[in-house]
Design brief:
This protein is an all-beta fold and about 140 residues long. It contains no helices and 13 strands.
């Protein structure tokens, strides 16, 4: 067998600051050429900037607080997750998180893919009405 298979422990103080998105503090625990894993912390009432994760699939497990995820045309769709809930974000899905709870929101994030893991953007494309015209959703 000759080949060594490694296991590594990453303590909280060993995590590095992850790529920034306004309103979110990411802590990178593991980054390889095929995966990214870490922790995200959001303050009560926080609304992040719009972003996507390029070619990465993302799994999010909420530990504390709540995560409201806005996405879709014009940002018009939303899901809210609480402790022990999972969210799945498809590659390239433009979204933003908010924390509508009264406590810090914390979540474990695992991304599988390659390339840059975070792209901050202005927002999702606008909705199109039946005539094909753009209609922006009112900001919150």
């Amino acid at each position: 067998m000759g080949e060594t298979v490694g296991v590594r422990l990453i303590k909280p103080e060993e995590r590095r600051e992850g790529q920034a998105t306004p309103g979110m503090r990411r802590e990178e625990a593991i980054a390889t050429d095929r995966m990214w894993a870490g922790l995200v912390v959001t303050a009560p009432g926080m609304v992040s900037g719009w972003h996507h994760h390029g070619d990465y699939e993302t799994a999010i497990c909420v530990l504390t607080g709540a995560f409201r995820m806005e996405f879709g045309p014009g940002g018009g769709e939303a899901l809210e997750a609480g402790p022990r809930d999972f969210l799945f974000v498809e590659p390239g899905a433009i979204h933003r998180e908010s924390n509508p709870s009264a406590e810090d929101g914390t979540a474990v994030i695992v991304r599988s893919g390659s390339g840059e893991p975070v792209f901050n953007v202005d927002g999702p494309p606008p909705r199109r009405d039946a005539g094909g015209r753009s209609s922006r959703r009112a900001p919150r």
